């Protein structure tokens, strides 16, 4: 395995220098608290609006900092690469974006993220009396949800949730309603991912796992953690079926159900391959009698330079499609505004 | 003994975690996300920086501040877990004489905090698999009349055995649990850093 080859200065400075870059690139939409590593919507707090905060380890860009702005998040807390942010950050962000309507924490289901957000919510409630509700995303069907695991991971649905819930908060829905909506989105979305290559955490300096040229890892998460199954590389058609089948079979689907179909890249896979994969997914859904109401194709929840993809299907009704179509203006997603 | 022993413990632990950072990260690469060594090193370097600029009058004040530093600097699951340990450990020693018995009570409180925050059970392949036997061995040694050095040595040895016993286990908590059966055959990074902490305590506290 070769030496680490990255566009960096010092491994320890990657997160802070990337945040400086975000601040420099998007001064119209964002402001960044560099000390606490929090990306804020420039005009936060918005009076009367529920504050939406997410956060997590870095290395998943554009998630979450790239989803801060009109119609999505009010703040995103950046941890070290693949490491949860700490309670101080979420407490500071919670106080900053609270405009009297309360704050929703959007947390991906990883042991560290859940613990750190929990501590922050307890402290913010005790300290400033801010009303905080939380939603934990856990849409990854690769993980058996049982007493014997930490539960399913939060992956692709998190992106769709932040967009849809962001629209609801933007139109002034109250905290409980926004939290209920977040839960509904999570409950109706499922994801499955795969990797063609590993990825290298800058501080580690070498790939997290080794994958031979003729192998792929199926059931991958977004932290370079190995998946559940290592298989020989297969044609895209077969890989698409390996991803779509467990996603579709995990929820009751009926003929004519509509979905948002999200073909996500892990960071190192070009769009030409993602569109090729999307074509396979669309054909599989057509055969299953599932209607694609909206689509999203691109690198949105990534795992550094890992090559590979994930498929997320979110079952939607007219209300969710309306919120999906609502204006959004963030560095990572923008339409209608 | 006094607050200086605990300062020495934290400094010694920081050195040990720094020396073993690459090893911990390597263990974490196999079944986790390759950040445990770097995270623990960052947290304990922050504690050393704190010790360099602040002097502490009491053990509880020192340990609580060390715990908050870990919560603030480590991230991941290790930050809240180790942070909670030191917070509870310090709180339990507030106003107490430093004896093998009171330190044992503080250990019990600290491990209770880890259990409450992490919700792990014995055999889940987590740091608790090192903490639980260490605490039992400590209590048994004190009950048998051991001094602090004897009790801590027994605790460190039991932690090492618990750490080694995580190798064949299938993880049921934390990121390694996503691997299912594939997590077997690897030593748990959290149980490994816990053992380093306790070995350091046995070197420095008595």
From TrEMBL, chain B:
**Keywords tagged on the record:** Kinase, Transferase
InterPro entries, per the entry: DhaK_L_YcgS, DhaL_dom, DhaL_dom_sf, Dihydroxyacetone_Kinase
Q: What's one GO BP annotation on this UniProt entry?
A: glycerol catabolic process
What superkingdom heads the lineage?
Answer: Bacteria
Checking SUPFAM superfamilies in the record gives: DhaL-like
Q: Does the keyword Amino-acid biosynthesis apply?
A: no
**PROSITE patterns per the record?**
DHAL
Tell me the Gene3D superfamilies matching this sequence. Answer: 1.25.40.340
What GO MF terms are annotated?
glycerone kinase activity
Ranges for region Disordered: 180-206
Gene Ontology CC annotations of this record: cytosol
Keyword Cell cycle in the entry? The reply is no
- DhaL domain span: 4-203
Entry's PANTHER family? TRIOKINASE/FMN CYCLASE (PTHR28629), TRIOKINASE_FMN CYCLASE (PTHR28629:SF4)
User: Under what name is this protein listed?
Assistant: Dihydroxyacetone kinase subunit L
Q: Which organism is it from?
A: Kribbella capetownensis
């Amino acid at each position: 395995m070769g030496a680490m080859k990255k566009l960096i200065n010092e491994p320890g400075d990657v997160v802070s220098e990337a945040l400086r870059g975000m601040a420099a690139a998007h001064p119209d939409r964002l402001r960044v608290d560099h000390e606490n590593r929090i990306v804020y919507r420039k005009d936060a707090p918005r009076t009367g609006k529920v504050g939406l905060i997410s956060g997590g380890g870095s290395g998943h860009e554009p998630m979450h900092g790239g989803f801060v702005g009109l119609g999505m998040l009010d703040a995103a807390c950046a941890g070290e690469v693949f490491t949860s942010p700490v309670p101080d950050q979420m407490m500071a962000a919670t106080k900053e974006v609270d405009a009297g309507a309360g704050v929703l924490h959007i947390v991906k289901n990883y042991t560290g993220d859940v613990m750190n957000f929990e501590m922050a919510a307890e402290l913010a409630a005790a300290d400033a009396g801010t009303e905080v509700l939380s939603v934990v995303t856990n849409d990854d069907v690769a993980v058996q949800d049982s007493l014997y695991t930490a539960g399913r991971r939060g992956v692709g649905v998190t992106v769709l949730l932040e967009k849809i819930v962001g629209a609801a908060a933007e139109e002034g829905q109250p905290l409980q309603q926004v939290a209920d909506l977040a839960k509904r989105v999570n409950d109706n979305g499922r994801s499955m991912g795969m990797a063609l290559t590993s990825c290298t955490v800058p501080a580690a300096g070498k790939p997290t796992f080794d994958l031979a040229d003729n192998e792929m890892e199926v059931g991958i998460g977004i932290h370079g953690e190995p998946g559940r199954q290592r298989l020989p590389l297969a044609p895209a058609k077969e890989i698409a079926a390996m991803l779509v089948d467990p996603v579709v079979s995990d929820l009751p689907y009926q003929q004519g159900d509509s979905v948002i179909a999200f073909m996500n890249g892990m960071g190192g896979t070009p769009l030409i391959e993602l569109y090729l994969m999307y074509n396979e997914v669309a054909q599989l859904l057509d055969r299953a009698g599932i209607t694609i109401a909206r689509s999203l194709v691109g690198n949105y929840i990534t795992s550094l330079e890992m090559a590979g993809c994930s498929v997320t299907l979110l079952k939607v009704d007219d209300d969710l499609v309306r919120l999906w179509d609502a204006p959004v203006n963030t560095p990572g997603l923008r339409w209608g505004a | 003994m006094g607050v200086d022993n605990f300062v020495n413990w934290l400094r010694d632990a920081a050195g040990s975690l720094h020396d073993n950072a690459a090893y911990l990260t390597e263990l974490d690469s196999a079944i986790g996300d390759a950040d445990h060594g770097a995270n623990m090193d960052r947290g304990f370097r922050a504690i050393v920086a704190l010790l360099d600029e602040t002097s502490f009058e009491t053990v509880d004040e020192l340990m609580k501040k060390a715990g908050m530093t870990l919560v603030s600097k480590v991230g991941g699951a290790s930050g809240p877990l180790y942070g909670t340990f030191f917070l509870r450990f310090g709180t339990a020693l507030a106003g107490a004489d430093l004896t093998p018995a009171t330190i044992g009570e503080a250990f019990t409180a600290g491990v209770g905090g880890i259990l409450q925050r992490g919700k792990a059970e014995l055999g889940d392949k987590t740091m608790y698999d090192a903490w639980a036997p260490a605490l039992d061995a400590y209590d048994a040694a004190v009950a048998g009349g051991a001094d602090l050095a004897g009790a801590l040595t027994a605790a460190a040895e039991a932690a090492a055995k618990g750490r080694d016993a995580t190798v064949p286990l299938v993880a049921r908590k934390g990121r390694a649990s996503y691997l299912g059966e594939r997590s077997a055959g690897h030593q748990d990074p959290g149980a490994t850093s816990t053992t380093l902490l306790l070995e350091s305590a046995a070197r420095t506290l008595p």
